[in-house]
Amino acid sequence: MTGDDLDFDSITVPVDLPEVLDHISYQRVVENAGATWDYFPGHFDPEYAQRQGNPTIYVNTMHLAGFADRVATDWAGPGSRVVRRSLRLTGSVYAGDTMIGRGRAVAKRRDDSVDPPRCLVDIEIQVTNQHGALCCPVELTLQMPWRPETA
């Protein structure tokens, strides 16, 4: 069950999320950096990136965060929303690479400290490249819709 069919009560943890693949072209690296106003030269200037010891330009942190959000919300559907995200950069995703996102819902809980209560699902995501190198481990929490049974 994924997407529109998924609500808090229908989730049993742990559960693996569908794998998401994303080919990263030079154009996408540059467009994303420009769209997020990230003008660090490593995101658009191959010569600069190479002088810094990289093979070419690489995606920025916001690109990785957005990809991790996509892994979670593609599974959870449009009624979900990211309420917490923690990520670490352990490697780079370069233009020409393929990003692979693998996720697992590991816990779910109700937050009764707010009104109305929030239904939360904790997810761990591993963003790797096509060589299997871990580039970005992510922990995030989704708020899920709750559809109580009506009589």
TrEMBL record:
Family matches, as Pfam families: MaoC_dehydratas
Gene3D superfamilies found in the cross-reference section: Hotdog Thioesterase
Domain MaoC-like: 24-110
SUPFAM superfamilies xref list: Thioesterase/thiol ester dehydrase-isomerase (SSF54637)
Signal peptide feature range: none
Sequence similarity: Belongs to the enoyl-CoA hydratase/isomerase family.
Protein name in UniProt: MaoC-like domain-containing protein
Lineage per the UniProt record: Bacteria, Bacillati, Actinomycetota, Actinomycetes, Mycobacteriales
